[in-house]
Every structure is written in C-alpha cells, then in structure tokens.
C-alpha cells in the first residue's frame, strides 16, 4: 500500500512520544522450563452422554480466576472448567469433566463459535451461528442482553482492552461491527433482557477486487474469520477467508482501513489463502496470523510495512476452525493442526521444528494460554476432548501475584490521514 506523504506512517509512529502507564507484569517463561510440556488432564465434551465438537476455549482474564477456562461447542453450550482439579490416572475423560466442571448452560440453540470474557470475568459474550451474540451474567448463568444485526453466523468477537463495554464482532456475512453495551439504542426483549444494536458496521470489509466483480459469490469468500481489538485501544484488526490480508481500522473513522499487511507472495504459490485467527501478546508488540497455507506469521505492529518479521511452519491448517495464539509474554506460539497434533514454537527460534504434542485423535482446533499461570494452556479437538497442558516443573500453586511496573503502550494507530483502501 502506498501512502503519499512526506513522512511514512511508521516513521511518524516511531517519532511520537507516549506517557508510561501502569500495567501488571506477567510472569515469563524461563530457560529451564522451555520445551517441556506435559498433559495433566483430559476432559470429555459431552452433554447427557452425547458428544459434541468443541469450538472455542478462553481462559479467564483476571489473576484470581486464571485457572478457569470457558469452552463453547457445536450444540450451543458454554461450560466452565477448573484446571487445578487433580485428575486420577485411572479416571475416565467423562469423570474428569464432571470433577472439574464449575458450571454449564445452554447459551444458544445453535453453535457457539466464540466467547469473550468481560468485566473482570463477571460477564461473558457469546457469538453464535444463529446470527446473534448474547451478554451473560456468569455467576447467575443468565442472559442480560442480546446483540443483533449480523446477517450471517457471528464467527469472532473481541473486547476493548480497557473498556469492556465496547466490543467488535466479525461475521460470515462479510461485515464487522462495533457495539457499546451502554448504548441507549436498545429495547426490552423480556423482563430483563436488552436487545442492542451496533454503533457502527463496515460491510464487505474483506471483499477482494475479483470478488467485487462477481455478482453472486459464495459467502465463505467474504466471511470475516477473526477480529481483534488491539492494545492501543484505538485499532481493530480484521482478517477474512478470501486472502491473507490483515486490515487495520481506526475506530474513530471507519470509512477505510488505515493500513494493511500480508505475507509476500511467492512465484510458486499464487493462490489466495485465508486467515483463521489473529492474536496479540499482552504488551501489544506482536500480532500473529494463522494462514491457510499452513504457516503462522508474526508481525511487529510498529513495522507492518515490512511484512512478517517471522514465519512458523510445521502445522497443518486445512480448516478455519484451526486456531493459534501467542503466549502473553510473546515467548511461545501455540497452534492447533488438522493432523491431530498441537504444536508449540519458541518465538525467537522460528526456523526450528515445533514441539509436537501428539495426544489428540482428531483435528486440533481452538487453543488458549492462561494469562497468568506460566506455561499452562488448553487444546480442543474434534475427538470431543479438551486437554490441559503445563510445564513439567510448573503448577497452579507456583503462580504469584504480578507486581506493577512502568511500561510504554505500543500504539498501532496514530492520528493520520486516511489512506485509500
């Protein structure tokens, strides 16, 4: 993308000064626990004896609840599990689930593709194939709001990093939308539920120039597969099924994407590859993208014009259900894989083969790291199980409350003139 001004977008960004702000220091991996993960428990994904494929996993975002994760599935249920439960070697997967399950409820009568924690883990937003999202009081397992407006399955949701009343959603209909849970443009659905409308919608956000010329296109070719509210608090990143382009949108002016990034094309491979997921580390320095060419790309948010700074291979990404996520401290990258394995790379060693965790017997789809318990993560699979992993010498009891420290906020969007998309 060409930007016609004397100083480039990224030179302008680097020259800006930011005030420091207080953040909690997250624990980091140390050398002695690197590359040494073990499975600590396997949970069955089933309801009343009927197995169902898991679709999304997400750990709580606060320190006190960092051992709990949410799981959503194809039958529309959301379940919360305690990863600090002690699992017997002789227990069945069903028994492990029963022991560690905190609660569960039917969130939608359709598949739940994504979940998003909010308000210090007291609330949750669910995104469903029924074209709606719901806001939940987690403690009461009660729906307190419904978000409607998309014309296709809602595939991805992400909340503002500091103001959890603001969220972004992406849909199979090709649009992404911003929502403010405090909005007055809502109406009562029942005695206690509110129906909310989006504050802004961008349609056809990832239509390729070729697709725009086709009158009747397949919905998959325009689907938004992942949205992410960046740590700079101003920028939304979006990715789609049509190609490997990530677009960045200034939420103060959504007329056009302000910039974009993508891997450099190869003469040997001219096909368009979609993106299945986006993730960012806790400090907002890096952005990872899972691409359907079986590669995961890592971008420096201050140097997007240079393309990926690192590329990781070794996994198989044959479906948009296969996700990846960078660890909160940006030390490791975790991915599912169609080959039935989970893979872990050291971020500073992209050319080395990943650690392969060969326990699942079906496609490994959604994965997630614990925000505060170093080295703990979960993997979910089409084999109807979720597996909990940990570093060999790490345990729940080893987590300590992080101390505060001064950090600089890494911004992805300065106030700049809109570039043509």
UniProtKB/TrEMBL annotation:
Keywords: Repeat, Ubl conjugation pathway, WD repeat. Pathway: Protein modification; protein ubiquitination. Residues 397-421 are annotated as: Disordered. Pfam families: WD40. One of its GO terms (cellular component) is nucleus. WD repeats lie at residues 105-146, 147-189, 327-348, 357-399. The keyword Repeat applies. GO terms for biological process: proteasome-mediated ubiquitin-dependent protein catabolic process. SMART domains: WD40. SUPFAM superfamilies: WD40 repeat-like. InterPro entries: WD-repeat_CDT2_adapter, WD40/YVTN_repeat-like_dom_sf, WD40_PAC1, WD40_repeat_CS, WD40_repeat_dom_sf, WD40_rpt. GO terms for molecular function: protein-macromolecule adaptor activity. The keyword Repeat applies. PANTHER family: DENTICLELESS PROTEIN HOMOLOG (PTHR22852:SF0), LETHAL 2 DENTICLELESS PROTEIN RETINOIC ACID-REGULATED NUCLEAR MATRIX-ASSOCIATED PROTEIN (PTHR22852). Belongs to the WD repeat cdt2 family. This is Denticleless protein homolog A-like.
